[in-house]
């Protein structure tokens, strides 16, 4: 069983730890569990409950009111809040949608995922749904996975749902002209999570760029052969696996040296990517907005 500290609850719910403690004391909202050594912790059900409380508060409910609800009343209010008559609310409070996606992931609930996605698409384009909701959600998953708050199975479940949607959306885009700028997108050896690079592929193709997507785990010699054949203008890669900083730096240098005439974009592990040195033909893309800004310059 995963154990959450009060700081974890603060991080995932957006509610300050001090506020959570006050709610515990004043309203008996949560009753922390304790380890054999008397350390306070919370379980997954309590995290889900607090995320739902956060959702109600975002919709104007008072904590004094929420604390008096029976379980049935609480669930009924939740249904009212996330019902179709409230879809426009998601446009104003993106965090609500992200919290709902967290719950869908934790509960392995595809229906909840589809409802959040469908709600967003009624009031946003697919691209805005990706950049405003899915991308921040993916960043939150990364934080949860690294600290053990989400299992590999839960992560894979939600990744595959999002991945399917992006692939379908890419297939629905018009073929760019032959003279459009050409991007070669790939993941290096031992990189297998292609979700973010697929997201970038959609952004590029949606702006009329040619995209050659190689997928995951591409050996360097194969990358060189493909580059010779396809002659892309830009190489775009993603490095996130738990490689050492020195290994990632060496890979950046190797890309720069082997493809001196190419522009290279790279994104990846936020913990040390900004600390690396980048040759003139290599540029770091730290956030999705960085890529959008590059494309609009």
UniProtKB/TrEMBL annotation:
InterPro entries: Cbl-bd_cap, DNA-bd_dom_put_sf, MerR-type_HTH_dom, MerR_fam, Meth_synthase_dom. This is DNA-binding transcriptional regulator, MerR family. Residues 3-72 form the HTH merR-type domain. The keyword Ion transport does not apply. It holds the Pfam family MerR_1. It comes from the Bacteria. SUPFAM superfamilies: Putative DNA-binding domain (SSF46955). The keyword DNA-binding applies. GO terms for molecular function: DNA binding; DNA-binding transcription factor activity. Keywords: DNA-binding, Repressor, Transcription, Transcription regulation.
């Amino acid at each position: 069983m995963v154990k959450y500290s009060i700081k974890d609850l603060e991080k995932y719910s957006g509610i300050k730890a001090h506020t959570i403690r006050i709610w515990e004391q004043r309203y008996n909202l949560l009753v922390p569990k304790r380890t054999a050594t008397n350390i306070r912790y919370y379980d997954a059900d309590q995290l889900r409950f607090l995320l739902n409380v956060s959702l109600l508060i975002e919709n104007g409910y008072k904590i004094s009111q929420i604390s008096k609800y029976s379980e049935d009343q609480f669930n009924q209010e939740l249904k009212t809040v996330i019902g179709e008559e409230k879809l426009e609310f998601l446009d104003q409070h993106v965090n609500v949608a992200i919290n709902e996606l967290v719950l869908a992931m934790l509960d392995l609930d595809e229906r909840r995922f589809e409802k959040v996605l469908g709600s967003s698409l009624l009031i946003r384009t697919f691209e805005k749904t990706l950049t405003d909701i899915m991308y921040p959600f993916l960043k939150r998953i990364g934080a949860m996975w690294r600290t053990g708050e989400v299992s590999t199975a839960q992560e894979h479940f939600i990744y595959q749902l999002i991945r399917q949607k992006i692939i379908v959306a890419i297939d629905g885009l018009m073929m760019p002209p032959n003279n459009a700028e050409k991007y070669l997108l790939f993941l290096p050896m031992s990189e297998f999570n292609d979700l973010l690079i697929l997201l970038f592929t959609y952004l590029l193709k949606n702006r009329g760029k040619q995209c050659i997507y190689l997928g995951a785990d591409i050996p360097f010699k194969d990358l060189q052969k493909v580059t010779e054949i396809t002659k892309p203008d830009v190489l775009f890669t993603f490095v996130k696996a738990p490689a050492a900083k020195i290994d990632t730096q060496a890979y950046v240098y190797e890309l720069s040296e082997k493809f001196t005439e190419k522009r290279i974009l790279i994104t990846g592990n936020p913990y040390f990517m900004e600390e690396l040195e980048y040759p003139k033909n290599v540029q770091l893309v730290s956030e999705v907005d960085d890529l959008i800004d590059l494309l609009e310059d």
